[in-house]
Design goal:
A two-stranded antiparallel ribbon has the order 1-2. It is elongated and about 145 Å long. It is mainly α. α11 packs parallel to α13, α52 packs antiparallel against α54 and α55 packs parallel to α57. Helix content is 68%, strand content 0%.
């Protein structure tokens, strides 16, 4: 520093101390620009060297310049301030580029002064400073931290400057050339564009983004800045820098471009997860979610943008975007909407997977599914432990709501999709409960709330509770008080709910003494409550606890503590047996089920305790005196005043019979007793039972003061007494049968006694069933089986020996014969059961009882174990059905096909049993075990705990194919007999349909196993149609079964490679070949049988209605061989038409789904297509062509369906299905309107011509033929309505009522058809105008006019000729459509489609 500079600094310092800033400014004004600049530079350098932040001289210069402004010397002040600001900015920029960049506080004072004097600067100074900063940004890619708050105000100030002449030198060398005049707004826009085009340093990117974001930006500038920040995300080197950048984007979105910013953020993280899916990334994503949630709370429009993004993406959501939506759901404003989106996403993805698998004809043309909800929920649940904790509660709520909605079927998706979604959500809840302790209380509370309020899904949530207890009992122990609180309200819960809840909580009951004490207290209080329902619920709960305790004994861990618990609960049970008859009835029913379990029979403490309870009760009613008419005092069980039952003796005897059988059969039980007196007591009980069975077998109906022709209805006291007496006697005899069967199997009793007891049971039951009628003389008891108490296990034990597997009987090496002793035992039991097997009525009764148990299990009224269901299926096949299949080598035994007056044959019962077993196992997701258990039986399959491991899919398919072949062969043999066994064959067809459904599911969802399944189903479809086309009887149920089987197997008439083909990968289009040329004839091949079936039905209807003339086009259509009128009768044709219409509806629903996939595929291809690329959407075009080909292949069947030869109700179905066809075609056309890139293909034009020309004319003929008279009558009645006002009040005849209903129905049918036809033509017209393609000539105006005009009221020339003298058929008139029609909003179309016109 020179002496002159030192003197100047001294003078300035003295003036500053004196606060004489005006004279200091005057002094500075006398200096040159270089001198002032040097003063500032020296002061800033000295301050930096001294490591202080005072900058005294620089601050004095700023104050001096400001003072000159205030005193009116603006020019001098601007010069000083401009030089000082420029120098400070340059100095900050120079030091920011050095390695040791100073901290932000070093320039804090200078930055504040820059902001303070910014409004005082002249435009030229503002421009110089702004572009100096821009030059620094270009050079270093960084923005000094001192400019964080300064830059936004600087750019805003720059934007309000007027016209300024700019040179290249003013722009800092950024441009070259002469001067030009620009406004401040243009300079600001140039500055922002330039800044966004430069490369930003990673660490400074957040500051640059913040500076640009805080600037007042126009809409276009917001888009530019937003895209630049999004690009910068890819350049971030450290993951920790991402949250700050995303937060700046979210703040920027407040000013606009929300949708683009949201999409960009999600796209970035989607790409990042594919390359860096680590725990560190999940932590960063969790921070980003917090930023998003906070930003949405500050700006609800951002939440709406996120919601819109979710709706647009659909099934393209990633795990991160899904989690962000869960975060959004935590905000009350968006909770319902977001939950609805995600709930539908979960169910629709499962539904789409099922439909995609079943839509074989479109599979090679569909794009691959982009969303796997199983993996999605799994990822979200796992990452919730690594930074995504904030989404856990929303995830739990989503799963709970989804289960509620799918169980209640409030979403219009298939039952299979809903069931799969329930399993998925349950697994997710279980995972969340295990991983996150802070949601456990909420999950338990939600489960208990649904239980206490008995929602539709409460049983499902009890199952979830059972899984939680089994998974980690310690995690549930802390919430046992909530379970007790719910059980306090058992008065409002169903008994089955209480039983299931206590079964779920049984491990806690055995493990936690405090919970056990509380629970027993609650049950004791409920057991003696005033309400009967509450007592029943408590009783069910007691048996649930007893069952759980006894199961511990079977597991080998039974100790003194468990014994004490068991005796305590049995004490409560003993007290319940002294209550009302209704309560005791329930108690004996539950006790009989318990004593039927193997683990209960292996528990000596239970059996001994129960004997002590039941034996004294038996002694009260058992009459030792043989002179008595009955061994049981029946009259003691009936109230003499009311004739009502006071003692449910039948249920009691059944329990006592099972108990005595268990005690006398097991030597270990006797040896475990306390003394030899117990063994003598058990033997005495067995002797009493033998005496009881002998005396019941000899009893007569008169012994009980009953009359076979007497009154048994409940309308009179005598009828009530007779009814009660008969029911008690039947129940006692049935209990004796249960005991006799069990002892007879072991050889301890004569099998003949069981037959004698059954004869008496049948005699009493038939009398009660015949005489017990309602006020309309209809039977109240439909079947004798409804009165039987024979258990499922006893029935199966009997069936196994009366309908033995001949291979097991003849081969000691059979898998079920574990050793020689086992085989000998089975042979001996079969020999002892020969008398039973000879009585066909007895065998059929036992078989029907077993079938009743399984059928009740489908409605959850009775839960039959899976191994018992498998055993019944095995007996039905090996004992009955295989004999029918092998009838060529060995004739079918007469007892299998014999039928009583009001009963079914054993073949029918076996077929229904096989179908019922398949249905039950399908509901349990275990149907794959059935074919292996039937074709490859083993002891493990029928063990009480079920198979240890499920069979492999290949084994299941192999066995199912063999089983289908056997059942099909059995149907053929039954139809070949003389006389033909129609009912038996029809029942077998039902079972065959159930088995084929499983094979079809395997073939659809497991391409690796499709070969054998495809071959079997293809052969089955050909066989079913060959049977229809052959000489079979005209039985409607039989024909209906064959057609239903044909429809089930119809997709497998396609070529086998279709099932092995996979969907298209849009990201690798070059690998996809054109499949249309290969499979162009497969629709005709697949749909040919149904086409011929409908055509034959049409011909038969014509012949049966004596319509010899018919129309010309129908003559051409019916140019085939005459049908078999013994098969196609007036009884079978309606069933065939109904089946065909149902099948067509399913086909059209598949097409509607494929049209939705076409819309998604076109959108995806457009996103993947590079910008400024007008290449065709090849995948979408191929999919549309395939869809049109399929739709065109259905039109011949619709042509037959629109026949005028069908009766009125059948014509109604034809009109409805044609309306659905137009709805599908309108949906396709509307999709092409939305995806304007799809061209007009030849396939579409063929469909258009066939539907809107040919089929419309055919529909017009049908409507005028079938409904024209009714429409005229309707118009006449409408015009005469005022004149007949008084007459209408008179009672009308039944014919008049029927005619009125017909008119109303036809009006709706025809109006709906016209509306759909007009809607289709409207979309076609719009599409023609939009694509500049002539399509209107396919729309015949004559037909549409004839629909609206009453033809009978017109002159004949007007009915056939146009105004120009040409026939409409010769010269179809085109509908003129303006080009502006294509510009109409599709939202209006949506509104119009939801309305119905009034004609």
């Amino acid at each position: 520093m020179t002496n002159s500079d030192s003197g100047l600094v001294t003078q300035l310092a003295n003036l500053g101390k004196a606060r004489d800033y005006y004279n200091a400014g005057k002094l500075l004004a006398t200096q040159t620009d270089e001198a002032i600049c040097k003063l500032v530079e020296d002061d800033l350098s000295a301050t930096a060297a001294a490591n202080t932040g005072s900058n005294t001289l620089t601050m004095l210069i700023f104050k001096s310049g400001s003072t000159l402004f205030e005193r009116g010397n603006g020019a001098l002040g601007d010069r000083i301030l401009g030089i000082a600001c420029g120098t400070c900015v340059c100095q900050i920029c120079e030091e920011s580029g050095s390695a040791d960049e100073p901290e932000g506080q070093r320039w804090a004072g200078i930055s504040d002064k820059l902001l303070e004097v910014l409004p005082l600067l002249q435009p030229r100074s503002v421009i110089d400073i702004a572009f100096r900063i821009l030059a620094e940004l270009k050079t270093s890619g960084s923005l000094p931290s001192a400019f964080g708050n300064y830059l936004p105000m600087l750019l805003d100030t720059l934007g309000v400057i007027g016209n300024v002449e700019i040179t290249a030198e003013d722009l800092g060398g950024l441009e070259h050339g002469g001067s030009v005049t620009r406004t401040g707004a243009e300079l600001k826009a140039y500055w922002i564009d330039s800044a966004c085009s430069y490369k930003w340093h990673g660490q400074a990117a957040a500051r640059i983004s913040a500076g640009l974001r805080e600037t007042a930006l126009s809409t276009s500038q917001i888009e530019i800045v937003g895209r630049r920040i999004l690009r910068q995300l890819n350049a971030v080197s450290e993951l920790n820098e991402l949250p700050a950048m995303v937060y700046q984007l979210l703040l920027l979105s407040r000013h606009g471009s929300k949708q683009e910013i949201v999409s960009g953020i999600f796209s970035f993280f989607e790409n990042l997860e594919q390359t860096n899916g680590t725990q560190a990334l999940w932590d960063i994503e969790g921070t980003v979610m917090l930023h998003i949630g906070y930003s949405i709370k500050q700006d609800f429009e951002l939440g709406q943008a996120l919601e819109t993004y979710a709706r647009e993406q659909g099934d393209d959501l990633t795990a991160f975007s899904f989690a962000c939506l869960l975060s959004l759901a935590r905000i009350h404003r968006f909770s319902d909407a977001v939950m609805d989106i995600l709930r539908k996403l979960l169910v629709s993805s499962e539904h789409d997977a099922d439909v995609r698998a079943a839509t074989v004809w479109a599979r090679p043309y569909l794009a691959k599914a982009s969303l796997d909800v199983r993996q999605l929920l799994k990822s979200v649940a796992e990452r919730a432990s690594f930074g995504w904790e904030q989404v856990t509660q929303a995830l739990v709520q989503l799963c709970l709501n989804t289960i509620d909605y799918t169980v209640a079927r409030r979403i219009s998706y298939s039952a299979a999709a809903c069931a799969q979604t329930q399993i998925l959500c349950t697994d997710t809840l279980q995972t969340a409960y295990a991983m996150h302790s802070f949601v456990r209380a909420e999950i338990i509370d939600q489960i208990m709330n649904r239980v206490v309020f008995q929602t539709d899904a409460h049983m499902h949530f009890i199952g979830l509770l059972q899984r939680l207890v089994a998974d980690d009992i310690d995690a549930v122990r802390a919430h046992t008080s909530r379970i007790v609180d719910v059980l306090e309200s058992m008065a409002v819960m169903a008994p089955a709910t209480v039983s299931r809840l206590l079964q779920a909580a049984a491990p806690l009951f055995l493990d936690d003494p405090q919970f056990r004490a509380s629970l027993i207290l609650v049950l004791r209080k409920a057991l003696f409550a005033r309400g009967t329902d509450e007592r029943r619920a408590a009783l069910d709960g007691l048996f649930a606890l007893i069952t759980s305790t006894v199961q511990v004994s079977a597991a080998g861990t039974f100790d003194s503590q468990h014994l004490a618990v068991l005796l305590e609960v049995l004490g409560l049970l003993r007290r319940s047996l002294t209550q009302q008859p209704e309560i005791r009835t329930v108690a004996y029913q539950r006790l009989a089920v318990l004593l039927d379990q193997p683990f209960a029979l292996a528990c000596p403490p239970l059996l001994n305790a129960l004997y002590g309870v039941l034996a004294p009760e038996f002694a009260k009613f058992y009459q030792h005196d043989h002179s008595a008419d009955s061994p049981i005092n029946i009259q003691q069980c009936i109230n003499p005043a009311t004739s009502r039952v006071t003692m449910p003796i039948a249920g009691f005897l059944l329990c006592y019979a099972k108990l005595v059988t268990a005690l006398t059969d097991s030597t270990s039980i006797v040896s475990a007793s306390d003394s030899s007196s117990s063994g003598n007591a058990y033997k005495s009980a067995a002797d009493s039972w033998e005496d009881l069975c002998t005396r019941f077998a000899r009893a007569q109906i008169e012994d009980y003061e009953l009359d076979p022709e007497g009154e048994y209805s409940l309308d009179s006291p005598v009828g009530v007494r007779n009814n009660s007496t008969a029911r008690l006697v039947i129940g006692c005899v049935d209990a004796a049968i249960e005991y006799a069967l069990g002892r007879g199997m072991d050889g301890a009793m004569n099998p003949a006694q069981s037959i004698e007891l059954f004869s008496m049971f049948s005699r009493f039951s038939e009398i009660l069933c015949a005489r017990f009628v309602d006020d309309k003389r209809r039977r109240v008891i439909g079947s004798v089986c409804e009165l039987s108490q024979i258990s499922m296990r006893t029935a199966l034990r009997v069936l196994a020996v009366v309908l033995p597997d001949r291979q097991r009987l003849n081969s000691p090496g059979h898998p079920l014969n574990c050793n020689t002793d086992s085989h000998n035992t089975f042979v001996a039991q079969t020999g002892r059961a020969e008398l039973w097997a000879a009585n066909t009525q007895f065998v059929r009764h036992v078989f029907e009882v077993a079938l009743t148990h399984v059928s009740a299990s489908r409605t959850e009224a009775l839960d039959v174990e899976t191994h018992l269901v498998l055993l019944l299926a095995y007996i039905a096949y090996s004992g009955v059905l295989v004999r029918c299949a092998n009838a060529e080598q060995d004739p079918i035994p007469a007892n299998l096909i014999a039928r009583g007056m009001r009963s079914r044959s054993l073949v029918m019962v076996a077929a229904e049993a096989l179908a019922a077993c398949a249905s039950v196992l399908t509901a349990r997701n275990a149907v794959g075990i059935l074919p292996v258990a039937v074709m490859r039986p083993s002891p493990a399959m029928f063990a009480s705990n079920g198979p240890t491991s499920p069979p492999s899919l290949s084994d299941s398919v192999e066995c199912m194919v063999a089983l289908v072949a056997k059942v099909r062969n059995a149907v053929e043999q039954l139809l070949s007999l003389k006389p033909v066994l129609l009912r038996e064959a029809t029942s077998l067809l039902g079972a065959l349909h159930s088995l084929a459904t499983y094979l079809a599911h395997v073939c659809f969802h497991n391409p690796s196993q499709h070969t054998a399944a495809y071959a079997s189903l293809n052969e089955l479809a050909r066989w079913a149609y060959a049977m229809i086309d052959g000489e079979i009887p005209g039985d409607p149920p039989l024909l209906k079964g064959l057609v239903a089987l044909t429809i089930c197997c119809q997709p497998f008439l396609q070529s086998q490679p279709m099932f092995a083909s996979s969907s298209i990968d849009l990201s690798n289009l070059g690998a996809n070949e054109e499949p249309l040329a290969v499979h162009q004839d497969m629709d005709e091949h697949e749909l040919g049988p149904m086409n011929r079936l409908v055509a034959t039905t049409c011909i038969a209807s014509r012949l049966l209605t004596n319509d010899a003339a018919g129309s010309d086009d129908e003559d051409n259509m019916n140019d085939e061989d005459e049908p078999n009128l013994n098969l196609y009768t007036l009884r079978t044709i309606p069933a065939l038409v109904t089946l065909a219409v149902t099948w067509l509806k399913g086909e059209l629903q598949q097409m509607d789904w494929v049209i939705g996939q076409l819309r998604k595929c076109a959108s995806a291809e457009l996103r993947l297509r590079p910008d400024h690329d007008d290449e065709d959407l090849h995948v979408s075009i191929r999919l549309e062509r395939r869809l049109c080909m399929r739709l065109y292949a259905l039109t011949p069947i619709l042509m037959h369906m629109l026949s005028t030869q069908f009766a009125g109700t059948l014509s109604d179905q034809s009109i409805r299905i044609f309306t659905d066809l137009h709805r599908t075609f309108a949906l396709l056309t509307r999709t092409k309107l939305q995806a304007s890139e799809l061209p007009i293909t030849e396939s579409y034009i063929e469909c258009l011509s066939q539907i809107c020309t040919t089929l419309n004319q055919r529909a017009f003929s049908l409507v005028t033929e079938k409904y024209g008279r009714f429409m005229a009558d309707a118009n006449e009645s409408k015009s005469e309505k005022p004149a007949k006002k008084k007459q209408s009040q008179l009672p009308r005849s039944s014919g008049g009522v029927a005619k009125t209903k017909m008119l109303s129905r036809n009006s709706v049918l025809v109006s709906s058809l016209i509306y759909q036809m007009e809607l289709s033509e409207k979309y076609v017209a719009k599409l023609a105008a939009k694509t500049k393609t002539p399509l209107a000539h396919y729309l015949k105006r004559s037909s549409m006019h004839d629909f609206r005009i009453n033809v009978a009221d017109l002159a004949e020339p007007l009915a056939t000729t146009s105004h120009d003298g040409y026939s409409y058929d010769e010269q179809p008139e085109e509908i003129p459509v303006p080009e502006s029609a294509a510009e109409d909003s599709l939202d209006e179309d949506n509104q119009e489609q939801s309305k119905r016109p009034r004609y």
